[in-house]
Amino acid sequence: MSQMTTDNSVRRQRAQLKVRTLRTDRWWLAPAFTFAALALFVVYGFWAIFDPSYFVEPYVAPFSSPCLATSCPEGARFLGFAPFGDWFTLPPGILILGLPAGFRLTCYYYRKSYYRSFWLSPPACAVAEPHKKYSGETRFPLIIQNVHRYFFYGAIVIGAVLSYDAVIAFRDKHGEWGHMGLGTLILVINAVLIVLYTLSCHSCRHITAGRLNHFSRHPLRYKAWTWVSKLNAKHQQLAWVSMFSVMIADLYVRLVAKGVITDIQFF
């Protein structure tokens, strides 16, 4: 019993370095850049949620879509519906904040990123960290990370909504099809990147065919799994690119709505 107790206590300890690090390169650049980029995303997200300039015909800012309250401009309402009625007076972004935010917060890649950049756990390979004990994601609050696959289902819905917004952006102010401005192009690119990032998720790969024992018996699921696996190899890159694309798309719509810039019209 004493030997078992000793072994368990050893396993709870981090591998300790007697010096801060033996590395001579600028290892701190990566966590510093990650910290700055993720902090920028969080700060911008909170600002965008409470900013009222989220719609200018035919564009809806991604951080406020879908718009589901009657307080939303008529053209901004998703499919023309307002299921939350007049009683919901908070910014529309509050309604859908939890889905994309929860998906990214629990994402396997983002976990590694903010564990290293915000908690320094560890800040880089072969670098000492301030935490002496390690319990993994088995205790509160990190055990909540295990709900990632459920946020994935919500992220699929958000990806579909942004794709719908991108299609609607091909209509002009009078509802006629054939319009295309720079905002249309930006929203289309953002929707594609958001969908690819969502589908490249590790949970998506597992759900597609991760539990099959015989691929030969499920050829369609195997092909889907192969395609998702290729996307999964680019999950880190898609996480970063889609994060910046959604900020750029959102900011562009808001700047046009505020009259700060004018949307470039192609036809």
From TrEMBL:
Transmembrane annotation, as ranges: 27-50, 87-110, 150-171, 177-199
Domain of life: Bacteria
UniProt keyword list: Membrane, Transmembrane, Transmembrane helix
Organism: Sinosporangium siamense
Annotated protein name in UniProt: Succinate dehydrogenase
